[in-house]
Amino acid sequence: MSRLTGPSVLLLLGTLCLSSAEDKVTLEVLYPQRSLTVSRGSSVKLSCKANYDQEHCGPVHVVWTQSDRALTDPSKYITTVNETVSEGNMRLRQVETEILDLTADDRGQFQCKAKCEKGEAAMGHFIRIKVEAP
């Protein structure tokens, strides 16, 4: 009996996921669920990816939120967006938001949310941030 290991297995799984994603996914938000403990006055980066079908979704808006409030104040948050085109109409948008000069008000639950122009929405897991004294 032969067994596939290493890069061969990863390539095979990646190919299966890719073809499955092309058939079914209109919009999905991807990132690991985690909890962070950070020092007051420091900064932290939150990163998520939105995988979407441009033809079925149209333009997509992706943003990090805290308690359903978008993190958009440029004096507190720096957000960078990168987008790549994969096969067909699928696109991958990476959104990274850096929270500057953390205070006690920055503790809580954060979530990445995406919404298509055509109405479909998706969101990821909560990330919990705890802010401690330095």
UniProtKB/TrEMBL annotation:
InterPro entries: Ig-like_dom, Ig-like_dom_sf, Ig-like_fold, Ig_I-set, Ig_sub. It comes from the Eukaryota. Residues 1-21 form the signal peptide. Keywords: Signal. It holds the Pfam family I-set. Residues 7-114 form the Ig-like domain. This is Ig-like domain-containing protein.
